[in-house]
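Input/output pair, single chain:
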Amino acid sequence: MDDLLEFLVARIMDDNHAYAYAAGTLSGEALLDRHLPMLDLIEQLANSYKAMDPSDSRSAGLAHALRVLGQSYAEHPAYQQEWRP
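Output:
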């Protein structure tokens, strides 16, 4: 799971940089308004999972949610098929 978390955080950082680059355009600003809050929330979930005790009853559900979110990057060359939910 640690590999998936690192992968997700790296993709979020890549997306943040791409959106910052596109921010100078009207469509870029629209992307920022819609997607940056979502990227922040995914990063928050990843950080919550890292801090969570494995015995926490929410751990399995959060792991599944992160795997589902990770599928949005399934076309990325670093995506690993074993991360699929």
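Residues 26-51 form the longest helix (26 residues). The two ends are 12 Å apart (CA to CA).
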